[in-house]
Fold:
Amino acid sequence: MARIVYVSGTFDLFHSNHLRMIEYGRGLGDTLIVGVSTDELVCTYKKPPAIPFEERIEIVKALKYPDVVIPQHSLEHTQRTQDLNMDVFVVGDDWRGKYDYLKELGVKVFYFPYGRGISSSNLKKQIFQDYEQIVAGSDNHDNPSPQKKEG
Structure:
């Protein structure tokens, strides 16, 4: 029997850990479905994504690993589990424990370890810090008067 794997995420500022998690999901079954959180969903629990939903879903669709990429409108996956007949659920380890309820439905839950380093939040912080340094180091001066001095 074919195993259906569902990978859940926002995939904002797409980076190598996102790719690793999707690739990991690919290796856990026969059909890989990736759910990309909509902007409306993300805004219910944190600040809006830097990259709009339409762009994020197109990036994930362009990858070689997913069989299907769909919008994700809810963090609650009981109905989705049943509708998609999923066997495996994969999400980043920053959600550890939040989806254990799916185990009661017979779904194996994997919390993918991002480890240290790259995350969308860290990328945003780094971009901001780099921007602040650029601004601080910019050439601040008063512009001279454009009028010629007589003399």
Summary: Residues 4-136 form a domain with the Rossmann fold fold (CATH 3.40.50.620). The longest helix spans residues 120-136. Helices lie at 16-26, 39-42, 53-61, 78-84, 120-136. The chain has one domain: 4-136.
